[in-house]
């Protein structure tokens, strides 16, 4: 009885794990149709005292929306920039933002990249 129960638990756990992993071919196919156009996103310095520069690479000329949100999800800064193919930089000044953790997003028509910045 105990062996049967243990065997059933093992089979159930294996089936659940296999199902949770799923087939990821849809993600790979989607990336080949719409390859990412934004990469190598870095904020430097981070943490920042007064100013940081968001540096990123784009594979084509495009409009990018730069959005900064607090941890409650409230947008505290928004700017749309026209990027060029290659390396791009967006200066960001803390202005009257309080110390803490913020999330910034670079958003195009088909991609969104989010990272965090820390204000001292």
Question: What does this protein look like?
Answer:
Strands 4-3-6-7 form a four-stranded antiparallel sheet, with no helix packed on it. Strands 1-2-5 form a three-stranded antiparallel sheet, with no helix packed on it. The chain is of the alpha+beta class and 120 residues long. The chain has a single domain, classed as Immunoglobulin-like (Sandwich). 24% of the residues lie in helices and 48% in strands. The chain contains two helices and seven strands.
Task: Give a short overview.
This protein has helices at 2-21, 25-33, and strands at 38-44, 51-58, 62-70, 75-83, 86-93, 100-107, 112-119.
CATH class: Mainly Beta
Order of the strands making up the biggest sheet: 4-3-6-7
Reported CATH architecture: Sandwich
Class by SSE composition: alpha+beta
Number of strands: 7
Instruction: Bin the helical content.
Output: 10-25%
